[in-house]
Design a protein that fits this description.
Elements lengths: L1 H20 L2 H27 L5 H31 L6 H15 L1 H13 L2 E3 L4 H44 L2 H28 L3 E3 L1 H28 L10 H30 L4 E3 L3 E3 L17
Antiparallel strand pairs: 1-4, 2-3
């Protein structure tokens, strides 16, 4: 038991060192920047996909409720404004087509940025050949993840609906204890959803092959960090008075801060997944369209050529 704990502790320690060496906070800041421009189109596409099977208004309300629980009402209001401003407007067919293309391009920006960063964290780089084909493939992959997120949202809504029905029956039997049980079920549901989402990100997005078992272990670890971070970040942002000094931009700063801290969790989880797969798992191999990169320090620029003496 103690030996197993030491192994995981060393994995955690090495992941922390690798995160610092890879400038994980800088990568997180970059993702937060991209998210501000992509989150509106992303949520709008997810809502559109989910609304094929469920009421659009209910899905929108559910998403805004989740955002409000994470970053407060001001952050939710900012998301609502983004959704309203992102909706495609105009009556001409050409304008609508252009709007949809721009919408999809913006929505996939988050996932392509995550892919690039995880590739770097895992010391992987896509080959420059057939750059346009790779670019289109990455965008299609990102869009497929968005479609999957829409179905995941639908499944979550259906599960919540079943939990509401179950709650009515449990209320008659358990009374006030029903509240504690439902909170536990909600936390468990959130953990399963985010763990599955992280596992798909670590398994599908990078230009590498990693076993599902290794991806799930890393995703479960990241899911635990996300739940802990959800509480701590929410408490900090709610208690911090420095946000209010930004005035009208406070809601945007609040949302940006939450995305930044969540990105740190995502990328630290990627470091943990990499180290776990290499040290305790089945390893990581690159696709034929990618190569490994070597990160090392040098006292001079590698392209400097000394004259022959």
């Amino acid at each position: 038991m103690a030996f197993e704990f030491r192994k995981y502790f060393h994995v955690l320690k090495e992941a922390g060192i690798e995160f610092a060496n890879d400038n994980g906070t800088k990568l997180s800041a970059s993702l937060a920047y991209y998210t501000i421009f992509s989150i509106g189109p992303l949520l709008l596409v997810v809502i559109s996909v989910s609304s094929i099977f469920y009421k659009r208004a209910d899905i929108t309300t559910k998403i805004l409720d989740q955002v409000s629980a994470l970053v407060g009402t001001t952050g939710a209001d900012q998301i609502r404004t983004m959704l309203d401003n992102t909706k495609t407007q105009g009556n001409t067919t050409l304008f609508s087509i252009i709007g949809i293309v721009v919408l999809i391009f913006g929505a996939t920006g988050i996932f392509t940025e995550i892919q690039s960063s995880i590739n770097y964290i895992w010391s992987i780089k896509a080959k420059p050949k057939k750059g346009w084909l790779k670019y289109i493939t990455d965008r299609l992959l990102s869009f497929s993840l968005i479609i999957g997120s829409g179905f995941l949202m639908l499944v979550t809504l259906l599960i919540n609906l079943l939990m509401d029905i179950l709650s009515d029956h449990l209320q008659r039997i358990l009374g006030d204890a029903n509240i504690i049980l439902l909170k536990g079920l909600n936390i468990g549901l959130l953990f399963v959803v985010v763990t599955f989402l992280f596992a798909v990100i670590y398994k599908v997005l990078p230009d590498a092959v990693i076993k599902w078992k290794d991806a799930l272990v890393g995703a479960a670890f990241t899911g635990v960090l996300f739940l802990i971070g959800k509480f701590l970040i929410g408490y900090y942002l709610g208690a911090s008075k420095s946000i209010s000094t930004y005035g009208a931009a406070a809601s945007l700063i609040l949302l940006l801060s939450w995305v930044y801290y969540s990105s740190i969790i995502l990328y630290f989880g990627a470091e943990f997944t990499k180290v776990y797969a290499l040290r305790l798992g089945s390893g990581i191999t690159v696709y034929d369209t990618a190569v490994y990169i070597v990160k090392r320090e040098a006292k001079e620029h590698p392209e400097v050529k000394h004259p022959h003496m």
